[in-house]
Design a protein that fits this description.
homodimer, alpha/beta, TIM Barrel, 11 helices, 8 strands, 45% helix
Chain lengths: 209, 209
């Protein structure tokens, strides 16, 4: 059964907290990105922590190793449980993130492939190698798009029992019934937080996948 | 004459503001990255604004187009004058950033190549294409490493009169006297802010390049 991860891409602090709170009983994890953090500050973590489920910083960290380390330090110091980073900047950049994550007892996931059209330009050709680097660096898993289940099946042959989390369900076109059996977690954003009753959708998804 | 851009990669808010203030008379721009913003919140911009020189958000934005747009909106709403984004997520991701930047009358720069060892794994082979995408999307220029002046000379043939800003001077090994004549701006961080007297170094660099 796949974990259900809420992509809390809501910019308004109050609405974000309301959605998170109402959905928490049906969630395994909450993923927070830069839009919410920039709009409200990193302290949003202190307001989400009491919900008691793991928080993932989806910062797609993509700088030089030294700066990546600084960013990840701040991520885990404030209380995140995991971070999502880019593999495109290479093994040393990924390793800098994994090292910090593990020092805090946290997890690190690497973006192996993305779901938008532009990802075809550079990502598609190198996602196998990025996945390999993620594994060699000791990352806990990869992020791969629900819009491309064939690619997920292929990347599974590289990651083995490590985790695959898949965003792109719903609005972006990923079909949950096809993808859920292939991955360790499905990441759902707009389908939940833009619904008239977010917790109802979360409850429904949690029950069937 | 190349612009002098301070990379304000100092995490402590007070020290960052002190360094920025003392160096401002000799600077053309200040570049702020995620470590400082995460440690202090996006409001650090409101404290740097009164210095009266352009502020660049070096966020190396690298998400899907929708999220990139949200991040850039927050960047320019708070008062940044320019943003640095990644080109490897493809043209649509870059275009989303450029569009927001221009709507605010701001600028967008694309990372064409990076200065660390890991950049050899994926970046080096595609930096020409990334640079081309940056130009096609209407970006104001690119970021290319001072550690590779031969690459800067080559990328100049693609960007023409658009700007090239080069980080990696000093600690990372870039030789300022070789690079300054090739670029529109040199980005200097540790060499200035880790000096016993940062403003003295900034003054010296501003005078000779």
């Amino acid at each position: 059964m796949a974990e259900l991860i809420l992509a809390l891409d809501v910019i308004e602090r109050k609405r974000a907290l309301d959605v998170a709170k109402s959905c928490t009983p049906y969630l395994d994890k909450i993923k927070v990105g830069y839009p919410l953090v920039l709009a409200s500050s990193l302290n949003i973590v202190n307001e989400l922590k009491p919900l008691g489920i793991p928080l993932i910083a989806d910062f797609k960290v993509a700088d030089i190793p030294n700066t990546n380390g600084l960013i990840c330090n701040l991520v885990f110091e404030i209380g995140f449980d995991a971070v999502i980073v880019h593999g495109f900047p290479g093994a040393d950049a990924v390793k800098a993130c994994v090292d910090v994550a593990h020092r805090f007892g946290g997890e690190c996931y690497v973006v192996a492939e993305m779901s938008h059209t532009g990802a075809n330009e550079f990502f598609s050709g190198v996602s196998d190698r990025i996945t390999l680097i993620a594994m060699q660096c000791g990352a806990e898993g990869i992020i791969a798009p629900a819009t491309r289940p064939d690619r997920i099946t292929h990347l599974r042959t590289i990651v083995g029992s490590k985790k695959i989390y898949a965003p792109g369900i719903g609005v972006q076109g990923g079909e949950i019934e096809k993808v859920a059996p292939l991955v360790d977690g499905i990441i759902v954003g707009r389908m939940i937080y833009n619904a008239p009753n977010p917790s109802e959708i979360a409850k429904h998804l949690a029950k069937i996948y």
